Amino acid sequence: MRTQQRFTGLLALVFSILPNAWSLADLQVPFSSDVETQPLRIAIIGARAGGSSAAFWVSKAAERHERTIHVDVYEQSNYIGGRSAVVYPQNNESLQAIELGAPTFAGFNKNMMRAVKEFNLTLSRPYGVKDTSGLWNGEKITVQARGSGWRCYDQVKTLWRYGVSSLDWTPPCDRELSMWRLFETVYSPFGEPWTQIEHFGSGMSSSTLTSKTFANCMRSEGVSERFIQEFVEPLIRSSYGQDTDKINAMMGEVSMRMATENPVTVEGGIFQVFEQFLNRSSANVHLNHKVTGVRLLSADGKAKWALSVDHSPPTTPAYDHVIIAAPFASSGIAIIDSPNTEAALRTPPVDYIRRHITLLTTVAAQPDPAYFNLPARARVPTFIATTRDSMGHGGKDSCVVGMQEPEFDSLQYLYQTKTANEHGIDEWAVKITSKGRISDMRLVRMFGEEMITWVERKEWDAYPKAEALETNNYPLISPANGLWYVNAFEPFISTMETETVASRNIIEMIFRMEFATGMCARDMELEYAQLSSTCAESSARSKCKGLPMMEDVCFYMYLDLFHHDLVSSLMSAMLYD
At residue 113, does pLDDT exceed 50? Predict the structure, then answer.
């Protein structure tokens, strides 16, 4: 395991210094099947993480196998990225963009990290005013700490409150499952695609985590009630807007790992990753095109599908495959002439957390102390997470009644938009996440009279409710022949990375169905020999520097598994060229 970890680190270094390139023409092997008479046609509904990455996988796999595939992407909004959208304070694009949706992804998210590097985007740390953090339970601030994030809690206080084990925090339920090592197999070019979420989950023994709450899982591992309430719960509420006694242990593990292991963002907005997925594909992208219906044209033999799209002809051309890459229940799409298919897409029902985002700028250097029941001159944290504290967690104070649910999940001063030296006034950008709308009157109470200079609100269905369930029952990935559902994966694990994983799984199945080969299935041993020979020639070493993301997905994972020596030669070529 230690050797594998060292190699993984070496491989990550190789990835980090490879320049941008998207094809290995010298290594292409012509596909040996009959000449195509009619190009395959694929429609993708939704230009978010799942839809944009699906278009990218199709395009790059088609290039790899020298296939012609016609892809149309339909997006109902006027932008790409879905919940990955940004706002500029006061509509001033000279200021830093603020993420409306998920503000970060994790450094271990391989597809997202590879894409950022290949697309020449810039990674950065999540921003936040470096001041103090606090924990609000709806009545009082129970804990304060130095630093701009809850992870920065002072270690001496941590030791005193939670014990020695808290200084080396790792998600405890992970020991029960070793799920992360198993999850790594989804990146292998040799893995079998999963046709049902239950099949994928069974490989990870996930039922042990989806059937229990995260709070109960941690209690069974001996984690203290105080640590759950004051450390874990605020992170879960900030990330997924759910409580530890409701969210299942699987999503709790995901949330904790996403929050505590190298969270990163993209300068200018994460949506740029999904824009580039489409820009670097061969897909035709149709923005402001809302799909209202998917019609089955033929049930005999090979199914064909047509779409009904607003502001378009009555029906689109026939498609061999339609990929729905948006939450079906809220999409407004009807499945026509296939009632059983629509019922399958709605079973089981998936409820989403409605998330309210309030963005504002304020001349108040901190929230109003009076709102948080503090003395007038008290220092108020500029990052405030929340907990339900004693409200039904089974702790020793659980008999306390009358405590109110905190009115927000998190409040954070992001950065200073103006300084007194330059503008005669100090001003800060603030982001509040909540389950309900934060009224103007409440904002005045939180920041003071005439202290707010700009407000913008957004609400959407952010994440599925990931409650603990006794049965593992998820939507079908393919509810009908030629119809696919990327978001079937969301109730299991909901992240941008897993959407790209789910979309790749679908494209893998389509290629096996249509061409009797997977996305990556070629003579890998031959390619290895060719690349080794190429890289051994000093005059051709520049070719070793151009291994792209798609070849990385298909080829480097092969090297990771079998050919460590080539990576060493690549390192030598790049270090000494």
Answer: yes
